Each structure stands twice: as structure tokens, then as C-alpha cells.
UniProtKB/TrEMBL annotation:
Organism from which the protein derives: Alkalihalophilus sp. As8PL
Limits of the N-acetyltransferase domain: 3-116
Keyword check for Nuclease: no
Keywords: Acyltransferase, Transferase
Stated name of the protein: GNAT family N-acetyltransferase
């Protein structure tokens, strides 16, 4: 289930984002979170399985497109199709089709391919 990010969940968001290759550095993580907290076009969503927040999606909403910048799943929950579920749920909720960033291009293509 998708859950919108709240600033009180900053540490959880940073933990999940840190699983992304380019988000390992604490200073980079802080800047990334600040971007989502201060720019109204940038949104974070958690994925909840039962009571646990196990994934995170980060998007940028422009007039013409919505770009997926971040997608991460807790390693304990990988290989279960959660990334695809997260993407499909977000696209359904926002009634959009996500465009990948350089970092999410391969993963998003893989998810879309599995869903066809």
C-alpha cells in the first residue's frame, strides 16, 4: 500500500533511499530529503507491507511528465515483485505513466516489461 511521506519519517526515508547506489553518502541523502521536503513538485511515497515500511518511491511532477527519480526496496523484501507493485500502484493512484530518470531507467523498463 502506498503511503505519502511525512517529515516525521525522515530517518526511515533516508534508510530506504540509502539502498540506492548513488545515495550512500549521508550528506547526499540529507540533500535528497531536503529536495523532497522543500520542492512541491518532488514527492516521496512509502510502500507498506503489513505494518512495515519496506520501499520508497521518489518522483518529480512537471506539467508534461512525472519522472521516477528514486525507487528502493528493503533487501529483505526483494525478488517478490514489490518494485513493480509500487510502480503500478503509483501510476494508478496519480493516473500517470512514469518516465524514468537515468538512475531508474533500467528498473522501470524491466517492471513495464514484466507487466506486459
Amino acid at each position: 500500500m502506498l503511503i505519502p511521506y511525512k517529515p516525521s519519517q525522515k530517518k526511515i526515508a533516508m534508510g530506504l533511499l540509502s539502498y540506492m547506489p548513488k545515495e550512500k553518502d549521508v550528506k547526499k541523502l540529507i540533500k535528497t530529503i531536503e529536495l523532497y521536503e522543500t520542492n512541491e513538485n518532488w514527492k516521496l511515497f512509502f510502500w507498506r507491507e503489513e505494518e512495515d515500511l519496506v520501499g520508497i518511491l521518489g518522483i518529480e511532477i512537471d506539467e508534461d511528465e512525472t519522472t521516477l527519480h528514486h525507487l528502493s526496496v528493503n533487501p529483505s523484501y526483494r525478488e517478490e515483485g514489490l518494485g513493480t507493485k509500487m510502480i503500478l500502484a503509483l501510476e494508478d493512484r496519480l493516473e500517470i505513466s512514469l518516465v524514468p530518470s537515468k538512475e531508474t531507467k533500467d528498473f522501470l523498463a524491466s517492471c513495464k516489461e514484466k507487466n506486459e
